[in-house]
Amino acid sequence: MVQAVQGAKVVVTGAGGGIGAALARRFAAQGARVVVNDLDAARAKAVAEEIGGLAVAGDASSVVDEARDALGGTVDVWCANAGVGRDGGEPGAPLREEDWALSWDVNVMAHVRAAHALLPEWLERGSGRFVSTVSAAGLLTMIGTAPYSVTKHGAYAFAEWLSLTYRHRGVKVHAICPQGVRTDMLDASGSAGDLVLKPTAIDPEDVADALFDGIEQDRFLILPHPEVAEYYRARAADPERWLGGMNRVQRQWETTR
Predict the structure, then answer these.
(1) What is the pLDDT of residues 51-72, one digit of tens each?
(2) Which residues lie across from 12 on neighbouring strands?
(3) What is 195-214 written as a DSSP string?
(4) What angle do CA 242, 248, 252 make, to 5 degrees?
(5) Using an 8 Å Cβ cutoff, are 72 and 121 in contact?
(6) Cystine design at 208: which of 26, 32, 191, 238 (Cβ 3.0–4.6 Å)?
(7) Rounded to whole angstroms, how far apart are CA atoms 4 and 6?
(8) pTM above 0.70, yes or no
(9) Helix 41-51 to helix 18-29 angle, to the nearest 10 degrees?
């Protein structure tokens, strides 16, 4: 058992399936009281009933008050897990503004709004934990999906800013950055996901394992795929070489479409 989460009041957004459901199950198994949030009310209810938690359906950007009330007025851990993947169209194709707007709202602003609502209480009492499900795309990038890649960079930057700004005041922040995970989002990623992500895809439960290892070790950056650390170092050390390598992947993908 991880002492830091025993008895904690936890909210997991986008928890009707995939990574979110795995996180909700793990927190509940560790003795936490869990609110399961999802846009799909039936899926949220099913996971909540399975783990003995509470279901709060709705947009992740606007459920802080309702989730906090369901937990008796206090949230100890907020898992900003809800996310969307949109390809946004290729350069030269019609720009789908709505895909960019949705990606920005869900992948970044939902995190910002939650933190804005939670921080006053956390700072007053000197404790709180914010878990951001980002993606390796937030450290690196992902071919074929500009809105996802760009907004996941934003999600990572916001988590990083939270950590450096508030860690001395008791706020713990974790950024989870997996590559492929066997979820509905991976299935919907098309040929780009088949090429880049599926060969090394892991299960959602593996992501939960990595997070809880990170909580025990008090680590900010959670890498369920350890090799991402090497890619990140290579990107920083030689951007031109890294971009050239990614362009080769892009060209390989173009030949398979």
Answers:
(1) 999 999 999 989 999 999 999 9
(2) 36, 79
(3) HHTGGG-B-HHHHHHHHHHH
(4) 145
(5) no
(6) 26
(7) 6
(8) yes
(9) 30
